[in-house]
Amino acid sequence: MLVNLINLGYLKSDILSCLNNITVEETNLKEKEIEKLRKKYSRKYEGFELDMIIKRKLYEKGYRN
Known about the structure:
Blueprint: H1 2-7, H2 12-21, H3 26-41, H4 47-60
């Protein structure tokens, strides 16, 4: 991604400063993702098994902790 922006003519320092200013509310995104997964898998799984499926899916999507 960085190389593509540099090839388009943007300065590396400008790109990095913009990227450093971006903040994402990961907890809010994670909560939304958990609710979506819970809704999807609660029809098929329940209890401990449902929790493990949700954790596995979150890990697959790159969420940690």
